[in-house]
User: Which sequence fits this backbone?
């Protein structure tokens, strides 16, 4: 009797390309947005999404309209940024909070003694406590010039400490100290520039350049008015060829005699 070859069915699901998943989810979201009151459509897409992934509440769900609508809103919002074909446990951490907190109302979340960088050296350290420093009540000025002076004082103190450390370390030039000095110089230079009296004049104009120079495009007729004025052309020097002249000897003698008589 021939042996029968029983092949085990693979428990692995066939992987669907990400592009196909994205297209399927986009179509589902589009349908739900176009038909917001279609309960059957919601059950077909949303309920199938949760039940297929083994969502715990699906076992005793009576598919009440409010529950379906709530899960549909979550599905539409979440699938736009995190598309997938079925629910899984990792999605729990991505669920939207019922109440969102404004950043202005966060009371230094995370700034506590346990996670502080200075926990081992801070004299105010206390286990399981928030930071003892009230950072909101700082004396930082509000005006630009005052802020610059405040920064210069702080930066100068950093440079002074760095200078002492450099000398104690044997006087070897420290690149970090050089960088802090450059930063201090930049702050001082900015403060000096604020105290300077300045006057600036900026002229802007637009014109279609239909030939001519840029100045003509800016000043218009004023340039054309004086454009005809030009320096006179330099006249060439005349040269006389003495050898070519015809001299009347009789007239020369008469001129000579007359001049002698005058003397």
Assistant:
């Amino acid at each position: 009797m021939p042996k029968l070859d029983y092949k085990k069915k693979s428990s692995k699901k066939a992987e669907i390309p990400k592009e196909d998943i994205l297209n399927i989810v986009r179509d589902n979201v589009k349908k739900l947005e176009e038909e917001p009151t279609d309960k059957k459509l919601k059950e077909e897409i949303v309920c199938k999404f949760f039940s297929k992934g083994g969502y715990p509440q699906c076992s005793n769900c009576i598919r009440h309209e409010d529950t379906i609508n709530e899960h549909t809103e979550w599905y539409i919002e979440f699938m736009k940024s995190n598309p997938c074909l079925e629910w899984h446990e990792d999605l729990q951490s991505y669920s939207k909070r019922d109440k969102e907190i404004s950043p202005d109302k966060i009371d230094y979340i995370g700034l506590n003694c346990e996670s502080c960088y200075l926990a081992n050296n801070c004299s105010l350290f206390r286990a399981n406590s928030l930071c003892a420093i009230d950072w909101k009540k700082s004396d930082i000025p509000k005006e630009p010039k005052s802020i610059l002076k405040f920064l210069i004082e702080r930066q100068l103190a950093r440079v002074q400490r760095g200078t002492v450390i450099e000398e104690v370390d044997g006087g070897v030039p420290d690149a970090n100290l050089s960088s802090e000095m450059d930063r201090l110089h930049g702050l001082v230079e900015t403060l000096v520039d604020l105290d300077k009296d300045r006057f600036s004049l900026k002229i802007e104009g637009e014109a279609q350049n239909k030939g001519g120079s840029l100045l003509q495009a800016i000043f218009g007729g004023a340039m054309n008015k004086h454009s005809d004025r030009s320096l006179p052309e330099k006249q060439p020097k005349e040269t006389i060829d003495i050898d070519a002249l015809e001299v009347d000897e009789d007239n020369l003698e008469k001129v000579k005699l007359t001049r002698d008589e005058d003397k």
Observations:
- The mean pLDDT is 75.
- The first helix runs from residue 18 to 34.
- The two ends are 168 Å apart (CA to CA).
